[in-house]
């Protein structure tokens, strides 16, 4: 009997509770492990491994991060989805980034009966739709959508057959949005490989469902900073950053303005200045500026560092003369 190769475009590994994509196996028994009981599973058998690979990868119109080139100056949106077996809820999250600055974070969860059977894929699809809607709202002409579920690209472009109601609705919605004059580039990023913004999206999904994450973002913030556009965006990272919230730099330089404290510890540090009181220069805003200044100052050549310090001394002396 001739050997066969089974190319699995979409399946699910119930033993590990993870989706299976673009996997090639050489026995029917192993193939069944990933397709049996999986609604919408996509697979096909071939007599050669080359044919199987062609079936999975050729003509898909999808790029791979770290392999292919894609625009770097436009808006980047990272999308992800998750699923909680015990609550039968799915979640979605998107992280919009421009020039390495997080400009927007959105996440949510749902227990919709119509979408539960496709697990976290429902969240992945919703995140992509909401991300593209956000890009259009921001009047972007081009956007790169980063995703770990390949159906984000393949269902939107029609490369995969649409056998489920969810994929049909997604295809129609995405094509309606893409027809509004915005260029969309799809880029596959491997999940759980330390890609910062993809990890932010992943952990926001888990936060929505009260699933314990691997704290990748928290670990990153030990020796690094993350820059966001506003204090409102910073607040959305509070649960991920924990006591390292001060390593998230908000460009608007504002505090929370009372909507929600960044943390009890940070709140205790905020001291309101009054002219009749002794001047105190310790508050969270100045802590953030100081950390940011030191971080970037160290990246300058020594001579440039001296120039910055000399200018700071000049401003200090000038202020003292005025006072």
Automatic annotation (TrEMBL):
Domain named RNase H type-1: residues: 71-210
A GO term for molecular function: nucleic acid binding
Gene3D superfamilies for the chain: Ribonuclease H-like superfamily/Ribonuclease H, Ribonuclease H1, N-terminal domain
Superkingdom, natural source: Bacteria
Annotated InterPro entries: Ribosomal_bL9/RNase_H1_N (IPR009027), RNase_H1_N (IPR011320), RNase_H1_N_sf (IPR037056), RNaseH-like_sf (IPR012337), RNaseH_domain (IPR002156), RNaseH_sf (IPR036397)
PROSITE patterns linked: RNASE_H_1
UniProt name for this protein: RNase H
Organism per entry: Clostridium tertium
């Amino acid at each position: 009997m001739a050997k066969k190769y089974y190319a699995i475009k979409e399946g699910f590994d119930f033993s590990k509770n993870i989706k299976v994509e673009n996997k090639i196996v050489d026995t029917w028994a192993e193939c069944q492990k990933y397709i049996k009981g999986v609604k919408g599973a996509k697979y096909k058998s071939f007599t050669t491994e080359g044919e199987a690979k062609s079936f999975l990868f050729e003509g898909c119109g999808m790029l791979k991060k770290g392999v292919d080139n894609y625009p770097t100056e436009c808006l980047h949106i990272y999308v992800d989805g998750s699923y909680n077996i015990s609550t039968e809820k799915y979640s979605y999250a998107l992280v919009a980034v421009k020039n390495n600055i997080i400009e927007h974070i959105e996440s949510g969860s749902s227990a919709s009966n119509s979408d539960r059977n496709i697990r976290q894929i429902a969240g992945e699809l919703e995140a992509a739709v909401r991300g593209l809607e956000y890009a259009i709202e921001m009047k972007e002409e081009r956007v790169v959508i980063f995703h770990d579920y390949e159906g984000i690209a393949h269902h939107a472009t029609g490369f995969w057959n649409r056998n489920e109601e969810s994929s049909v609705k997604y295809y129609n919605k995405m094509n309606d949005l893409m027809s509004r004059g915005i260029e969309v580039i799809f880029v596959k990023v491997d999940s759980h490989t330390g890609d910062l913004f993809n990890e932010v999206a992943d952990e926001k999904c888990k936060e929505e469902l009260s699933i314990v994450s691997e704290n990748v973002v928290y670990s990153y913030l030990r020796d690094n900073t993350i820059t966001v556009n506003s204090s409102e965006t910073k607040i959305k990272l509070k649960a991920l950053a924990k006591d390292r919230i001060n390593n998230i730099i908000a460009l608007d330089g504002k505090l929370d303005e009372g909507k929600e404290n960044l943390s009890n510890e940070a709140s205790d540090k905020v001291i309101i200045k009054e002219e009749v009181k002794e001047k105190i220069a310790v508050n969270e805003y100045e802590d953030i500026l100081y950390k940011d200044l030191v971080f970037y100052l160290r990246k300058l050549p020594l001579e440039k560092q001296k120039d910055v310090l000399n200018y700071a001394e000049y401003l200090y002396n000038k202020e003292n003369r005025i006072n």
